[in-house]
Design goal:
The protein is α+β, with helices and mostly antiparallel strands and 423 residues long. The protein contains 17 helices and 13 strands. The strands form three sheets. Strands 5-6-1-7-8 form a five-stranded mixed sheet. Strands 9, 10, 11, 12 and 13 form a five-stranded antiparallel sheet that branches. The chain has a three-stranded mixed sheet with strand order 3-2-4. Helix 10 crosses helix 11. 34% of the residues are buried. It binds a DNA duplex (18 and 18 nucleotides) through helix 8, strand 9, strand 11 and strand 12.
DNA sequence: TCTGGGGTCCTAGGACCC
DNA sequence: TCTGGGGTCCTAGGACCC
């Protein structure tokens, strides 16, 4: 397996858009340029937080995830806008379109960053020239700044793109790792958060250099398989290929909401579950998938959060189906205390056509053999609602369904993008 | 007066089967 | 009368990232 991927000589770029949402807003409205700008959800609610902010705002100490009221205290003249996800998706699409002109190996990681393998793109120039060209085009054509890391693998490219912002281009060679990466604290590493950094420090590891020389048995005990991986990365090793298909499909689709104030009234909570189910149903349909499992999330006043899930005998997608399982899980597991957040997630996603085929198999071959047909029908109706029979009989999906829900990521685009690549 | 919403991946324990 | 070892599936929770 390993031999399939080149062991050396790869050239990987990591392109990272700088304060993406804020930059897009500035591109749309140039009067915002040079000003402290923040993008925040729930602007009128007390629970709004900063999603992104401009570099001018950062000078005041404003940071991502900071509560809005705190940001305003630090920077009273802060301009606050709500997110326009359609704009961001469009800008993202345009950005990846540009990247795809430099290599067929483009792996989007999120709405605003991606990897490109330019090993075979030498006819377009050397790696620095290619990076400069990409950065220039994104800036001139889209009015958006980005930082680019150049390295022999994904991990180093990611670390490199982070080093100069905004509008930086940074090369990180393997031989530079001891000098550049090793002095940094472990939590500066992609993949090491607060918890892992704290655990590492209990065995005397504070820096990436110390991690690079760490004892593998100790690391494995402390962080599991991830401990071994992190040590490899700390040594500048990372064989993962740039995979254009890696994010083509969702593994789960969910919707959650923090309530404006805590709610202990079951009726009210039920109506929120209705809304969440509706959103999840619409998004499942948009992706043309059904959920084989449903989970709910309940966060209480004290931020204690539980998730409860259930595998389903047959995949579902309709709002009514989702809401009934969600309510069932909710009444079974709610302790009656005030609720701060509610969420519903569909997982074990199955392609719709595939799901229908399996349902056919189930109803005709398995059940029908055992039971008189009329009983099967009523059994299925009882279990899944009266629509189930129609659904099993026809393979219809509404192709005109248009959705404007605000997922942070444009998988539709990625799919068409990848299909185009194959041609 | 605190801490959103969208995800992915990994781990661990229990049930169950052979 | 007490009891191995492996494997898979399901569920819950945690860590991390953008």
């Amino acid at each position: 397996m390993k031999e399939m991927y080149p062991k050396k000589g790869r050239v990987i770029l990591h392109v990272d858009m700088n304060s993406f949402y804020a930059s897009v807003e500035m591109a749309y409205d140039s009067s915002l340029k040079g000003k402290p700008l923040a993008i925040a959800g729930n602007v009128e609610e007390r629970r709004g937080i900063i999603v992104t902010c401009s570099y001018e705002a950062r000078k005041f100490g404003v940071k991502t995830t900071m509560p809005l009221w705190e940001a305003k205290k630090l920077c009273p003249q802060l301009i606050v806008r709500t997110p326009n996800f359609n704009r961001y998706r469009l800008a993202s699409k345009a950005m990846f379109e540009i990247l795809s002109q430099y290599s067929s190996l483009v792996e989007p990681v999120s709405i605003d960053e991606g990897y490109i393998d330019i090993t075979d793109s030498y006819e377009l120039g050397n790696p620095i020239q290619i990076a400069e060209s990409i950065q220039k085009r994104i800036l001139e054509e889209l009015d958006l700044p980005c930082s680019i890391g150049i390295a022999p693998n994904k991990f180093l490219a990611k670390m490199a793109s982070d080093m100069k912002k905004p509008l930086g281009i940074t090369i990180l060679r393997k031989r530079d790792v001891p000098q550049i990466l090793w002095p940094l604290a472990t939590n500066e590493m992609h993949g090491v958060g607060k918890k892992s950094a704290a655990k590492l420090s209990t065995i005397g590891i504070q820096t990436i250099g110390e991690l690079a020389k760490g004892n593998e048995i100790q690391l494995k005990k402390l962080l599991g398989i991830n401990g071994i991986r992190l040590k490899e990365r700390a040594n500048g090793l990372d064989e993962r290929p740039v995979d254009p298909e890696s994010v083509a499909e969702f593994k789960s689709i969910g919707n959650s909401t923090t309530l404006p104030k805590d709610v202990a009234n079951q009726k009210e909570l039920f109506s929120i579950l209705e809304t969440l189910s509706q959103t999840v149903s619409i998004r499942l349909k948009r992706e043309n998938v059904l959920a084989g499992a449903i989970a709910i999330t309940i966060r209480y006043k004290n931020r204690k959060t539980i998730t409860r899930s259930k595998k389903l005998a047959n995949p579902i997608g309709l709002k009514e189906e989702i809401v009934s399982y969600a309510k069932e899980l909710f009444v079974k597991n709610w302790n009656g205390n005030p609720v701060r957040l509610l969420g519903i997630t569909g997982s074990d996603l199955l392609d719709h056509e595939e799901a229908v085929r399996q349902l056919d198999l189930f109803s005709y071959e398995s059940e029908a053999r055992k039971e008189p047909l009329f009983k099967v029908v009523s059994l299925l109706r009882e279990k899944y609602g009266k629509n189930i029979i129609d659904k099993a009989g026809s393979h219809q999906v509404d192709p005109n369904h248009q959705i404007g829900t605000e997922t942070s990521f444009n998988k539709d685009f990625l799919r068409s993008f990848n299909e185009k690549k194959k041609e």
